[in-house]
Specification:
521 residues
């Protein structure tokens, strides 16, 4: 039985729904992957960040246009010379264990986050002193003006600056915490956690939402359900059938070929997940041959036919070509002119393989088997590389296992890797300060570990630009350098659709699913 037939099965359509009382009190959500870790600072993948937004809160939150707004903060004051920022916490904030949220908890949380996050590292380089003046006041004393301070604290994806109790935040950043206690709108239930399969949460009755309307990660995080369940269903067809029968309320990413079926069903709805979209790309491991040779990375970039990759993950109206190192459509992003495709490009790539010293050694491509927006792109990469004459060794596994292997710096034959397909929500790679995909600072870089001093100098020029004109000039020059340095090879920009029960209202558009503002009509 194929997926469409499965969805139309009379047995499934006739399956009894949960009792109305239980359904009214419980929100059942199927994320893009199974939750296997609890620390969104140590493991900033989308699924762990989704969990993080449930359990933890942030000092500032970003709206759909990525503008920062106070969240845990009541507000802030900036000195006349722009070198001292004083952030005041809202009154009455408490952690799930009952302890009050204090400024020293936030200071410890910011420090731990900044060790692992690129934007955080840039912020701390500009910070001479970070301290708690009293229980409700956080003080940044800067070495130089840093107008993007609130943008750093409000970044909505790929390691948001979540606030934790000091006892957790004081733990080393290179080791994950195993206790999920925050001050967010949901309380994690450790006794019901099955790594990779399911997680459960209770509404935080002590949570004090802001008065403003909810928008993305900003505004009032009002929870109207008593209980939240995250359930991972590996098969997309089974998940869609469960949505149609009411066994689950929301699927983060339905399979693209099932979206038309869900749109036709009066009991289900779909909408664009995040209007800013996702940039797909191929990541190279620059530590080892042959992709430590930039000439080969350029050649592989130029044989990627983006429509092939995009058609595999999104509906025709939901993707576009994007020959850029930042998501197309965002401010100051400039596309490069793609090289001539076809036979000539393939011949150039084969020549580049020879020049890089490739002699038929196995090239390890790691690919998740349970993440449709990545899985199909990875398989297309494998096919492309084989057509170039590369001896491909394919490692497909669940997303959590691939994430663990991706972090392994060992040689490919000893548990490491050469190639990896993935994507980034536009908000998490929107500019040089937040983008983990373009940084080229060697061992400190995102897995792939590329190194290019010129790129890093230009990132610094953007961050330290004294005015808008200088920042725009720095951005233009940086994109030129990145296109030649090739830390990633873009495969296109696409917008995914999310699917939910028609009686579920208040689904927000954001880089992550925001599990508040939801009601059952």
């Amino acid at each position: 039985m194929d997926r469409r037939s499965l969805l139309m099965s009379p047995a499934l359509l006739a399956a009894p729904a949960y009792a109305q009382g239980a359904r009214a009190r419980t929100l059942r959500f199927m994320p893009q992957a199974g939750l296997s870790a609890l620390d969104p600072i140590f493991n900033p993948t989308t699924i762990v960040t989704t969990h993080g937004f449930c359990v933890f809160d942030t000092l500032y939150g970003a709206d759909r246009a990525l503008r920062p707004h106070p969240q845990m903060a009541a507000g802030h004051e900036v000195s006349a010379d722009a070198l001292t920022w004083r952030i005041t916490l809202r009154e009455g904030l408490r952690f799930h264990d009952g302890d009050p949220v204090r400024a020293r908890d936030c200071v410890a949380s910011i420090r731990r986050w900044a060790v692992r996050d690129g934007f955080g590292q840039v912020l701390m380089q500009a910070t001479a002193e970070l301290s708690a003046a009293d229980d409700r006041t956080i003080v940044f004393r800067l070495r130089r003006p840093f107008p993007a301070l609130l943008d750093a604290l409000a970044k909505p994806g790929s390691s948001p600056c979540f606030m934790m109790p000091e006892r957790l935040a004081s733990q080393p950043a290179d080791r994950p915490i195993t206790e999920a206690v925050g001050s967010g709108p949901w309380k994690f239930l450790p006794g019901e956690f099955v790594p990779g399969a399911s997680a459960a949460y209770l509404r935080n009755e002590r949570y004090i939402p802001r008065d403003e309307p909810a928008e993305a990660a900003a505004g009032g995080k009002r929870v109207h359900f008593d209980r939240l369940e995250l359930t991972w269903i590996p098969d997309g067809g089974t998940a869609a059938a469960a949505l149609r029968t009411g066994e689950i309320d929301w699927i983060e990413y339905p399979l693209p070929d099932l979206v038309p079926v869900l749109d036709r069903d009066r009991n289900t709805k779909t909408q664009i997940y995040d209007p800013n979209g996702f940039l797909g790309f191929l990541r190279f491991n620059c530590l080892y041959p042959p992709f430590n040779d930039v000439r080969l990375r350029r050649a592989i970039r130029d044989v990627i036919v983006q429509p092939d990759f995009m058609q595999a993950v999104a509906l025709p109206q939901d993707w576009q070509e994007c020959h850029a190192m930042f998501p197309c459509g965002l401010p100051n992003v400039v596309e490069s002119t793609p090289a001539t495709r076809g036979v000539a490009a393939m011949d150039r790539a084969r020549a580049a393989l020879r020049e890089a010293g490739y002699r038929g050694e196995p090239i390890v491509h790691i690919n998740p088997s349970d993440f449709p927006a990545v899985t199909q792109q990875g398989r297309l990469t494998v096919d492309l590389m084989r057509r170039l004459g590369v001896n491909m060794e394919v490692v497909e596994s669940d997303w959590a296992t691939i994430i663990a292997r991706r972090a392994n710096r060992a040689p490919p034959a000893q548990g490491g890797w050469n190639l990896h397909n993935t994507n980034g929500p536009a908000a998490t790679i929107a500019n040089p300060a937040v983008s983990w995909a373009i940084r080229m600072h060697g061992a400190a870089a995102w897995p792939g570990w590329p190194e290019d001093a010129g790129v890093e100098e230009q990132v610094a020029a953007w961050v330290q630009a004294p005015d808008v004109a200088a920042q725009e000039a720095a951005m233009k020059k940086l994109q030129e350098l990145l296109w030649e340095a090739v830390p990633i090879a873009p495969t296109g920009l696409f917008r995914l659709r999310t699917a939910f029960r028609a009686d579920l209202t208040g689904v927000l558009q954001a880089p992550n699913p925001m599990l508040w503002n939801l009601r059952r009509s």
